[in-house]
Amino acid sequence: MEALLLRVVPGLSEEWQGATPDEIERIEQLAGRPLPPFYRWFLSRMGKSMGKLTYPGLDFSASRVLTCYAEKRITPEPRFLFIAYNSDETMPLHVFYDLEAPARADALVTWGDTWGNVLHEGFETLREMLAWGAVLSFRVGKMPQQCEGIITGEPVGFLSRFDSVMSRLGFTQPVPTGPYCRLYERPDAAMVCSSPSAATFKGGQAFTLGGVDEGALRRILGEIATEPSLEVEVDEWMPELG
């Protein structure tokens, strides 16, 4: 994960700042159990500043987490650990860990209100949430041509078939991901995908694909569409095609 972020985000190592060991230990005390190892890594690297990875309107800092608990803005809940404050004034959905849904030395990321009511699930891990955002912003978003759409297919074995096609096309997966999303990279193109929650997953991934030109993207999507059990629908090109 660290190698991915340092590779795709220019100057990140000079910008990110970690939380203090004391702050990390205090958050663990609030959790009432050992923190997911990935969250400890995240706090040690970006618990004070995420640099260019900062999410608009979301504050993941250790100081914000501790302040919100201290000021009782967040209702403590044994299962859900508050990890990011949403400053949106209309509908501020904050970010929580579901500590009872561990995955790959990490845990399920959910969105909820200040009373701890979880409204929906987001990513199976914080690791893939951060990686998804980084690849979207600094790989896909920097490509000359992009497109969005959805890839669908028979639910049983959908992701394994999708992974197999992308591997044949020379794409690698920079970090492990679960059923909520996929990340694919190769030198001339990158793709991020997202799906409904695991509970409602029906064999589909919404995608944003970026590449060097329209032709490259059409060739990639055409190869995916040749898989008998996969269908590709493109909804938008950015910039618009002439």
Describe this structure in words.
With 242 residues, this protein is of the alpha+beta class. It has eight helices and ten strands. The protein has helices spanning 2-8, 12-15, 21-31, 37-46, 62-70, 126-138, 158-168, 214-226, and strands at 58-59, 80-86, 94-103, 106-112, 118-123, 145-153, 181-186, 189-194, 204-211, 230-238. It is globular.
CATH topology of the largest domain: SMI1/KNR4-like
Tally of DSSP helical segments: 8
> Which percent band covers the strand fraction?
25-35%
Question: How many domain regions?
Answer: 2
Low-confidence spans: none
CATH class of the largest domain: Alpha Beta
Structural class by secondary-structure content: alpha+beta
Mean pLDDT: 93
Strand tally, please? 10
Q: Sketch the topology as an H/E string, one letter per element.
A: HHHHEHEEEEHEHEEEHE
How far apart are the termini? 38 Å
How much helicity do the residues have? Answer: 25-40%
> Mind summarizing the main beta sheet?
5 strands, antiparallel
Shape: globular
Going by CATH, the architecture of the largest domain would be 3-Layer(aba) Sandwich
Summarize the structure.
The chain is an alpha+beta fold and 242 residues long. Helices cover 32% and strands 29% of the residues. The chain has two domains: 2-128, SMI1/KNR4-like (3-Layer(aba) Sandwich), CATH 3.40.1580; 139-238, Sirohaem synthase, central domain (Double Stranded RNA Binding Domain, 2-Layer Sandwich).
Quick tags:
Double Stranded RNA Binding Domain; 2 domains; 5-stranded antiparallel beta sheet; alpha+beta; SMI1/KNR4-like; 242 residues; SMI1/KNR4 family protein; 32% helix
